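Minimal example, chain plus flavin-adenine dinucleotide.
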Amino acid sequence: MANRIQETKEPAEVQEDSAILQATKGIDEKKRQALEVTEEARETEYTLPSFSGQLFVGNFKPELVFPFPVQDSEDKKIGDEYIAKLEKFLLENLDPENVDATREIPEQVIEGLAKLGAFAIKIPKEYGGLGFSQTNYNRICMKVASYCGATAVLLSAHQSIGVPQPLKMFGTEAQKRKWFPKFREGLISAFALTEPDVGSDPAQMKTEAKLSDDGQYYILNGEKLWCTNGTIADVIVVMAKTAPKIVHGKERKQISAFILEMDTPGVEVTHRCDFMGLKGIYNGMLKFTNVKIPKENLLAAEGRGLAMALATINVGRLTLPAACTGAAKQALKICRDWGKERVQWGMPVGEHEAGREKIAYIASTTFAMEAMTWLTSAWQDQAKVDIRIEAAMAKMFCTEELWKITDMTMQLRGGRGYETARSLKQRGEKGYPVERMMRDCRINMILEGSTEIMKLFLAREAMDPHLKRMGELLSSRVSFWGKIKSAFRSLGHYLVWYPAQFFKGWFAPGYSELGPLARHFRYVDVNSHKLSRYIFYYMGRYQQALEKRQLILGRLMEIGTQLFAMSAACAYANYLTRVNPDDKMPIELADYFCKQAELKIGKLYDELTINNDRLTNTVAKDVLADKALWLEDGVMPL
Ligand SMILES: Cc1cc2nc3c(=O)[nH]c(=O)nc-3n(C[C@H](O)[C@H](O)[C@H](O)COP(=O)(O)OP(=O)(O)OC[C@H]3O[C@@H](n4cnc5c(N)ncnc54)[C@H](O)[C@@H]3O)c2cc1C
């Protein structure tokens, strides 16, 4: 049985060559493998409506964001009570500066968190967990991240990607009964996918799990890198390749996921990694030597590990926007205080126009981040909208924006921004931790899907409706006459659809229910048609080669993301104004955010045609071909 290679009967959707796999013909073998593996793991169907998925095909669906879906009062009360307890506990027991300096979260803090049920927040009540909603979980993550990044990561690596989430989504009843109650007692988990050669591309996975001869357990060998919580975890989800299957006469890599108890013989933590920031995270390298994993610890089915990981991360990704929003709110507070307090050249630094620009940017962007966070959280709780595209957009937007916000905050704080909170306090000043915040937040743009990978993910989803429609045209398995029929069908569709994208914008409704923000909703509506035309145009223009035009794709996806952020901000402002009609700030912030976003979108459209992409490619190729080595002269060897 070990090492078996199966010529498997394929599920229908795999058997049908998808257009994207056709598009990989003739490309480098490793790249083909990478595309095949991720494509097979991709969730292909949308059973619920997708707001941005529709935006990409020129179908603005305001009813999904407006009225803004809000947390019900009962759920909010549960969250409020818990957060109050947690905040008190953290203030009394946890010093984030100390965590940063010592690289340790004190034992009693971890124990205290466990007593509060903080490792079982999302675990259903029937299994002994707190059973909180995604909104309350994200509110908790926002609160903790605004105080101590490392502690927020401890909770979220365990709960957003560690064992609880995949178990909730894919576990068997027996697995749930076995593990869930233990998390209420404080069991900590982690998620191990990355390897030295496996970062964004899981197809290169080397860690291997072979089924034993008696079929009772898997034997795991390999190495995992950067496993957060890995050095203290009791149990982890580990991805490993299992026996490949043969598809069309070729081996296709299979990745499976397992629950692994860390005290199993053969598991070693070989190194605790130390990073630029998040000094207190327990992140390590793990080594597995002939580790026996009982076969009942397999999660989902054999070969579905990556699909499971991607589906887990789709939900897990909702936490980062919440955490980033927490940090952005702290930056706003710091800039507001310092902007008034620090006087230079006869004026508070926040009153100089350059200071005002930063403060306006930070406040309006934080507002949009919050809007996206609560919107996606509510969507997840209400289970009426597919969140996979918006979770990726929110992750990309919030992590990128937090970096800009932190940078602006450091600039406004001047030299004090660069000084550690500890040093500031030692000489009697307020210990604003801007330096630590900056170190802590940089990684967010890299992990759980880097910005570049998010753009590729979004582009794949944006093109999916067209690829599905044109799949038959590209498939080698469809007969000539089948292709002719399909060509006419597609042609018929696009002859109506494409011109409609020109006209529909002219007839976009007024959205008067949005009051002063109506014009922004109209802008999103009009631009959903424009964006859909551009996506279709570039698909037609570059065809298979579009996959390589990452700069074009990136701009299109950034436009889509800005449109989503605008929609969320306007709907959120409208909701806040209804709750408190005297407060004019939500409208002001949303209006400013949208006007700034419109400028960015305009620039992105311009750069689709007026750009230096060709030269960018040439310069980079030449540098990588070592043609500018002389430029590196005059420095010490690394
Ligand atoms: C602090 C920390 C915590 C982590 N926690 C975990 C964890 O708990 N579990 C876990 O499994 N992993 C974890 N990771 C790993 C993290 O998820 C990876 O760092 C991330 O997936 C990127 O992989 P990489 O660093 O190998 O970069 P690479 O994949 O090598 O990428 C390098 C650069 O190239 C870009 N790039 C890669 N492919 C493409 C492409 N096709 N097109 C354009 N650009 C591309 C990337 O965006 C990036 O900018 C952690 C990492 C860190 C630093």
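DSSP finds 24 helices and ten strands in the chain. Residues 1-17 have pLDDT under 50 and may be disordered.
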